Task: structure prediction
Amino acid sequence: MGSQYILIAGAMLILSQTSLNVRSSMLQTKDVSYQNEAIMGATAIAQSTLREVAAKKFDQKSIGKKITTVDSLSAVGSLGPESGEAYPAFNDVDDYDGYIRTVSTDRLGDYTVAVNVHYTRKDSLGALSGVRSFMKSIDVTVSGNPHLATDLKMNTIVSY
Result:
């Protein structure tokens, strides 16, 4: 009779251990699922932001005018919103330079979106250029969500 109790206790121990392993596996699957959902959400936010910015006019000085030389474009140091301009009334690409906003979602909480705009060169697309050019790089970073393991970065280049 004593050996049966030992067998029952051993079976209970194995059952408990199996139950803990299954629960741990389920929790890991749930974490991975949240991470995947956060990545998809961040990607959608970044793509939407890129589309929004790229849909604007190339430069403040090109609104209603034709620009033929880069010297007619906004100076490198003056990228960003013009005096009195505020989101959502931005009217050109570089108004978004330095723009930060919070996007709230019902399921996963908040994301922080940061936009940087800079001139870029033909020979090194995406690289920061210290001079005006007919190309601008739009860089979007999505961060701040607890389920997002690393910041998500996307960029696109627009040209005049």
Summary: The first helix runs from residue 2 to 54.
